[in-house]
Design goal:
Its EC number is 6.3.1.20. Keywords: ATP-binding, Ligase, Nucleotide-binding, Nucleotidyltransferase, Transferase. It comes from Acholeplasma laidlawii (strain PG-8A). Residues 28-214 form the BPL/LPL catalytic domain. This protein has 332 residues and is α+β, with helices and mostly antiparallel strands. 31% of the residues lie in helices and 26% in strands. The chain contains twelve helices and 14 strands. The strands form three sheets. Strands 7-8-9-10-6-2-1-11 form an eight-stranded mixed sheet, sandwiched between helices. A hairpin with a 2-residue loop joins strand 13 (252-261) and strand 14. The radius of gyration is 23 Å and the shape is elongated. It starts with a strand and ends in an 11-residue tail after the last helix.
């Protein structure tokens, strides 16, 4: 394989690396070539087809400033920190049906030389002593195949559990114990090998030549990376879904159900045991239709509505409070 030197070490956000993957896949990759590089990030990375708000423990993420991202591959959400290494393998598609094992065997063979025996499990996991140390995702298109995965050196498992759903403390406590029984860190098995030494070993063991990204390419990749940091990529790329918000106030209980498609509100349904001051709730529902599903947008709309004229004793602040844990970004 060909090792890519990307000169982006220390950057714990994945945007540059996603842009690099796309660049290698669409512009560098030639027949009979396979590229490899490693990277580190800190935060939650959700799959391309997931609804981010459903994957994250929003109160915890907001309190602890845990960052969140969306990757261009499928699969589930993962948490990574600086004590976890990500790796990417990019190659041309083979004539056979895709199998993670065909590519991950290179990783497991490298660890065997360190005296660490890794096994495959399920569709995309690598296990150590029956516990997961690596999860992987892929995409393939007309240009080739891209696969990337995690490698848990000394990952903070408790933060991983708390940052991902569910938010209930009892479930979290049970979850930490449960997850610890199913995941593993590599560090205790490596006879004192540091994280940096492990990465250097894998890069040397798995590759036979180097492609060094030049400064012109770096600047272009930084520009391309902005797409993966955009709200459009993060939220409007999500599949259609329904968001239900519920809260009890002194004036009654209210449920608000939103159908969201491409980041826009397609339908609103408000129910509850409150008292209406008008014949129906259209004066509250209608202004929200076909609007951007974001905290800033909702806040602006509510500022133009007199909620106390629609629901007895309710205030605009009450309705806005419903959305506090519906969005990760509520600083606007």
């Amino acid at each position: 394989m060909i090792l890519i030197k990307h000169h982006n070490e220390g950057n714990l956000e994945p945007y540059f690396y996603f842009a690099l993957e796309k660049y290698v896949l669409e512009h560098l990759l030639k027949d009979n070539e396979t590229y490899f590089f490693t990277w580190r990030i800190k935060g939650i990375v959700s799959g391309k087809n997931q609804v981010i708000e459903n994957e994250i423990n929003i109160p915890y993420v907001k309190e602890h400033n845990v960052k969140f991202f969306r990757r261009p591959t499928g699969g589930g959400s993962v948490y990574a920190d600086e004590n976890n290494t990500m790796f990417t393998i990019i190659t041309k598609r083979s004539g056979q049906n895709f199998s993670f094992k065909n590519y991950l065997v290179k990783i497991t063979d490298a660890f065997k030389k360190l005296g660490v025996n890794l096994d495959f499990s399920g569709r995309n996991d690598i296990l150590l002593d029956g516990k997961k140390v690596s999860g992987n995702a892929f995409l393939q298109n007309k240009y080739g195949m891209l696969m990337h995965g995690t490698m848990m050196y000394d990952l903070d498992i408790e933060t991983m559990v708390r940052a991902l759903n569910p938010p209930d403390e009892k479930l979290i406590s049970k979850g930490i114990a449960s997850v610890r029984s199913r995941v593993n860190n590599l560090k205790p098995y490596l006879n004192g090998m540091s994280h940096d030494e492990l990465v250097s070993y894998l890069e040397t063991e798995l590759t036979s030549s180097v492609y060094e990204i030049n400064q012109e390419e770096v600047e272009q990749l930084k520009k391309d990376a902005k797409f993966y940091a955009s709200s459009e990529w993060l939220y409007r790329s999500q599949p259609e879904y329904t968001q239900k918000l519920s809260k009890r106030f002194d004036w009654g209980h209210i449920d608000m159900r939103f159908n969201i498609k491409s980041g826009m509100i397609q339908n609103v349904d408000i129910t509850g045991d409150f008292f209406e001051l008008k014949e129906d709730l259209k004066s509250l529902e209608k202004p929200l239709l076909n609007q951007v599903w974001s905290y800033a947008s909702i806040k602006e709309i509510l500022n133009s509505i007199e909620v106390d004229k629609i629901i007895l004793n309710a205030t605009n602040e009450d309705i806005l409070a419903l959305f506090d844990n519906a969005f990760i970004e509520t600083n606007n």
